[in-house]
């Protein structure tokens, strides 16, 4: 059975048609491609680099299977010699990249591939697919982390994600960005992400009374009694939770929390909090869900809503307010010569590049400098070599380590950049050497 995640047929047709052209012409020199974001959505001030782990897995594992080669032959699109050549395809190049969890900005290469032209070309589609999605979702999730520091944040988005892999990788990206966990069970098995879950309205409706549903659930999950209280009358349900709480306490079972999923969340949370406290359930938490995102979190917390945690789904896993990145993977050097695309609105900076980051006296991000990799600048270089000869240079980091690194970087954001409303544009300077190279190339053509 085909492994879709590592299949080289998970690509655009033109990658293969170009490859046959390269093969027939003998264009196998060393190429340098860079993945970058051209510009940010107006509601975004920064991005978090994510998805590198899956890219490296793809590069290490990918090859054409005999089944795939037979299928390519059957299409009649490609020559026998070309397909025979593909049989030996495996990635042998180098990768330089920002570490996952790094804050990044437009025009900065998040990743560079240096390999023979056919190798660097064929991986383009899947590489963009992996980096684009996780960077998009991690960047969206980080904004909720910044708006609700110290709150329990759980990814609830699998059911509305755009496909199974999207839901699974969204769970990874949100956790990387600082979320507490996910409701996606496979994400725990695959990545070790903590699992959180409560109950659905259907569970309550399946029972003749609400308190019966609560009681059955509590006995089925005595270590995770979180009860959904808004199926009928939220405040009446809260009073039933208090009565049940005292009943369960005699059995050594505690009501861990209640969940609100509709209505005036701020007002209901305040009233429910009073009911729980007056009933002696001071340690029972309030968890909210229902069409939430970072903007809604900001509103709820500004209203003083006593909510301890949030389940965020649809708007997060689809990045609803900014559902894509204007990103690209472009040839910047071939056969030791810099290359520059000059298409209107899509001009690229030529050559292999590096990003140097400088910090202020408090250790917060101050400004970046983009220049040629060989043109050393002041600051911390962000791209490092992570793969050589088609193999990783270091053992993989755990997702927990990547998450801690991302949180560390979020903590170094200047306040204006961490805001949803400030509109601050972080300075990324283009070094003179890069301007000079671009001008020289433009003058030659």
Précis, in short:
This protein is α/β, with parallel strands linked by helices and 445 residues long.
Shape: globular
Strand percent estimate: 15-25%
By DSSP, the count of extended strands is 19
| Largest sheet, strands/sense/barrel | 7 strands, antiparallel
CATH architecture designation of the largest domain = Alpha-Beta Barrel
Work out the count of structural domains: 3
Q: Which whole number gives the mean pLDDT?
A: 96
Q: Would you mind describing this structure in some detail?
A:
With 445 residues, the protein is α/β, with parallel strands linked by helices. The protein has 3 domains: 4-137 and 322-444, nicotinate phosphoribosyltransferase (Alpha-Beta Barrel); 148-191 and 307-320, no CATH class; 197-289, Aldolase class I (TIM Barrel), CATH 3.20.20.70. The protein is built from 17 helices and 19 strands. The chain has helices spanning 13-25, 52-61, 66-75, 80-86, 117-122, 124-147, 164-176, 185-191, 201-205, 210-220, 234-249, 265-278, 294-302, 314-317, 399-410, 415-418, 432-444, and strands at 30-39, 47-48, 94-97, 103-104, 111-116, 152-155, 181-182, 226-228, 257-260, 285-289, 309-312, 326-334, 337-338, 353-359, 365-372, 380-381, 384-388, 391-392, 428-430. The strands form 4 sheets. It has a 7-stranded antiparallel sheet with strand order 13-12-1-5-3-17-18. A 6-stranded parallel sheet has the order 7-6-11-10-9-8. Helix 6 (124-147) packs across helix 7 and helix 11 runs parallel beside helix 12 (265-278). The longest helix has 24 residues, at 124-147.
């Amino acid at each position: 059975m085909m492994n879709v995640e590592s299949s080289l047929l998970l690509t655009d047709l033109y990658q293969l048609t170009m490859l046959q052209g390269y093969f027939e012409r003998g264009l196998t020199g060393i190429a340098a491609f860079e993945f970058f974001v051209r510009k940010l959505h107006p509601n975004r001030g920064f991005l978090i680099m994510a998805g590198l782990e899956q890219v490296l897995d793809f590069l290490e594992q990918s090859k054409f299977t005999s089944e795939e080669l037979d299928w390519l032959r059957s299409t009649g699109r490609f020559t026998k010699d070309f397909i025979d050549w593909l049989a030996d395809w495996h990635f042998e190049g180098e990768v330089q990249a920002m570490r996952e969890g790094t804050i990044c900005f437009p025009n900065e290469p998040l990743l560079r591939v240096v390999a023979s032209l056919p190798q660097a070309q064929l991986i383009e589609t899947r590489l963009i697919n992996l980096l684009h999605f996780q960077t998009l979702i991690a960047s969206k999730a980080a904004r909720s982390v910044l708006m609700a520091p110290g709150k329990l944040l759980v990814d609830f988005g699998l059911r509305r994600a755009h496909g199974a892999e999207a839901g699974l990788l969204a769970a990874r990206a949100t956790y990387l960005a600082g979320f507490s966990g996910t409701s996606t069970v496979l994400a725990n098995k695959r990545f070790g992400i903590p699992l959180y879950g409560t109950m659905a309205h259907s569970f309550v409706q399946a029972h003749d009374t609400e308190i019966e549903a609560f009681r059955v659930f509590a006995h089925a999950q005595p270590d995770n009694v979180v009860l959904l209280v808004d199926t009928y009358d939220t405040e009446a349900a809260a009073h039933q939770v208090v009565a049940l709480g005292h009943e369960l306490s005699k059995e050594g079972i505690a009501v861990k929390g209640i969940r609100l999923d509709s209505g005036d969340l701020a007002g209901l949370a305040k009233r429910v909090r009073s009911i729980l406290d007056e009933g002696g359930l001071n340690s029972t938490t309030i968890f909210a869900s229902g069409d939430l995102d970072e903007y809604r979190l900001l509103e709820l917390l500004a209203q003083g809503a006593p909510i301890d945690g949030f389940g965020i789904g649809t708007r997060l896993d689809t990045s609803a307010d900014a559902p894509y990145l204007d990103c690209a993977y472009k040839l910047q050097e071939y056969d030791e010569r810099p290359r520059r695309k000059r298409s209107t609105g899509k001009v690229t900076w030529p050559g292999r590049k590096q990003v140097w980051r400088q910090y202020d006296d408090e250790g917060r991000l101050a400004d970046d400098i983009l220049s040629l990799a060989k043109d050393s600048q002041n600051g911390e270089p962000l791209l490092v070599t992570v793969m050589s000869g088609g193999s990783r240079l270091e053992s993989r980091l755990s997702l927990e380590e990547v998450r801690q690194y991302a949180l560390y970087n979020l903590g170094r954001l200047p306040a204006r950049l961490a805001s949803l409303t400030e509109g601050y544009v972080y300075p990324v300077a283009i070094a003179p050497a890069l301007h000079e190279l671009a001008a020289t190339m433009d003058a030659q053509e």
